[in-house]
Amino acid sequence: MPEPMALKSNPSATKGTTSNSIVQQNIDRIFVSNVDQLRYREGTRDAPGETMLLNDKAKEFSEFSYQLLNQTLKAARDIEPDRLGGRRLPEDISPLVVTAVIDSQGRLTEIEIESHSGDRQVDQIIIDSCKQGLWSRNPPVEAVGTDGMYRLRVSGYIRAYSIDRKGRYKYQTELGLGIL
User: Fold this and answer.
1) Sheet containing 169-179: which strands, arranged edge to edge?
2) Structural domain 49-179, CATH architecture
3) pTM of the prediction?
4) What is d(CA 89, CA 118) in angstroms, rounded to the nearest whole number?
């Protein structure tokens, strides 16, 4: 970003020129020289993403639960722009709910869809982000199920958050996780 110009008196100004007119000339020169910086710029900030714990067991093992949620949220936000292409999503979208199974080594072994969102692309984004984000190097042994596996309920929701001047949407992603 270029350094801002200092306001200096105009050497070509005559003695009879008032200080206000000199200041105005300097301001005009600053605006003309920095015209690109003064225009509207769209921010590059991501739309918000939210995570929540869906049950008491997830709250009891919150460090493990939030690790999985944050990994999955990051994956979803990385996937969204390419897959959705800035298109408008239906207003009546529902959360996609899946049950995921992680083995005792922390690897995802299974994903089962419990309910669809109503948009095939949104469903696929949530499923693919679960495939990338649901893993752990050191899952808590106390949270394991009776069969030696970790069963997780993941609820995912993507909605249009904002639209830019070119008609492209940004999305808000909400993910919830419960340990069954």
Assistant:
1) 49-53, 169-179, 150-163, 96-102, 108-115
2) 2-Layer Sandwich (3.30)
3) 0.72
4) 10
